[in-house]
Amino acid sequence: MKSIGNWADVVHSLDDLRHAKILGSQVSNKEVFIQVSLDAPGTENRGGVGIADLSDFIFQMQEFSNLNVLGLMAVAPIGQSPELAFERLRKVAGEYPQFSAISAGMSGDFEAAISQGATHLRIGSQILGLR
Fold first, then answer.
1. CB-CB contact of 99 with 83 (8 Å)
2. CATH classification of 2-128 is 3.40.50.300, yes or no?
3. How many C-beta neighbours within 10 Å does residue 56 have?
4. 74 and 85 Cβ atoms separated by less than 8 Å
């Protein structure tokens, strides 16, 4: 977590309060996105805070005043249409008007993310190639 705090301008995948505490102790100020899980129960989990737990997680994040939450981030679940996944993220994000940004979409589905209001994209393999 320390190295992430040193080199990343924005952390897009914060979904654990233990990680927030570590990151918050290592930086004076950092912009972050809270990762939301769009996975259905019992399916492969791609990470994130469950939607049912999101309000509580956001409340607890207030403890870390040097972590500026820009908005919500999600990865489209495997086997689900990215358009439908990102539409769901947009609707969830709409419940939190204090956040101004949505991080969604990677190299393979960024068009769907943009169509659903993504303000930030993670397109590393388009730039760096497959790893």
1. no
2. no
3. 10
4. yes
Residue 129 three-state SS = coil
The per-residue pLDDT for range 56-96, each reduced to its tens digit, is: 999 999 999 999 999 999 999 988 899 999 999 999 999 99
**Rounded to whole angstroms, how far apart are CA atoms 33 and 10?**
8
User: What per-residue string of b and e applies to 74-110 under the rule 16 or more CB within 10 Å gives b?
Assistant: bbbbeeeebeebbebbbebbeeeeebebbbbbbeebb
Averaged pLDDT for residues 102-127: 87
Rg (CA), the chain: 14
Domain ranges of the chain: 2-128
In the numeric block, which tokens belong to residue 11?
A: 């952390």
